[in-house]
Amino acid sequence: MPFDAPPAAHAKEWAKGSFKPVYYLFGEDEAGKIQFVEDLKKAVGADEFNLTELAGEAADAAAEAVSSASTPPMFSARRLVVVRRADFGAPGLRLIAEYLRDPLPSTVLCLSSSAPWPDKKDPAASAAQTLGGQVSFRPLGPEDAARRLREEAKRLGFTLQPEAAELMVEESGTEWGVLRAELAKVGLFVQGKGKATTEDAAACLGWRRRTNIWDFPRAVQKRDAAEAVKMLHSLLEEGEDAYSLLPKVRSALNLQLKAKRLAKAGVPKDQAFFKLGLKRRFDDSFFDWTDRVKEHQLVKALRACLDVEADIKSKSWLDPALELENLLLKACGKS
Known about the structure:
The protein is α/β, with parallel strands linked by helices. The chain has helices at 7-15, 30-44, 61-69, 90-100, 123-130, 142-156, 162-172, 176-189, 198-204, 215-221, 225-237, 242-264, 269-275, 286-291, 295-314, 320-331, and strands at residues 22-27, 51-55, 79-84, 107-112, 134-137, 159-160, 195-196. Helix 4 (90-100) links the parallel strand 3 and strand 4 (107-112).
């Protein structure tokens, strides 16, 4: 299995009773990471004596994770240790990396980071990669979400028409946790028919998101401060949090910086479009927006993202939502 295998590849291994000593989760698809952890818990089958769940914000979380991971299971084949928001500082990461040099074979350690990708200086991420347990959860684009809906419907035993999948994404957004719940309702609605049409999907759509989360980073790329802040408030009201939205801002800016550097290297826009993973119809204005901003402005905005992330993690008295709103104004060129 490649170092950075998709979640589904790991699930196939679990079905055969094979587990990595560590799974280090990165990416912006928070629902995907949550589901991965829940599926892992079921696959391992750890009972209350052999399951440890920790929050990474605690000062001693890394030490406690290593202590639990180093403990043999009790009347069971495996012990599972899960650390959510495993955003440790350098000492904690070194402690985890040291453990992973010789991990206990009977323990499965799962670390879920809020970072969109592993830091090159993270020794724990390097160790997890070597062990084949680094897992990426990239955000779903509209086309990816619609395709995943059709694949999941097939797994559930019915066919979801492409137009029906597109309608579900258009109405409910690309958050997989929401889409999967809507798909379950569609499956019950068409039980026995074997096929779900656009009309079936429309009849079942109970919860409809007012704001498409996929449009939020586009407002940042467009430098539309008013729209970005409006979307931020709407998404927060609908249950999102600043911790999950901040990486989307950073990724949007980073994508534009990459586009600038590809252009500087002489890569034609049509080639850069695919190198950057952009989608037809949804990202047709990307280069127009990117041409309007200077490279040094993007670098400055990305540094501000890092500062805000560090602040909201270390300064408990700050309001993360307010810090993110101020960041949006800076990123969009508003003082």
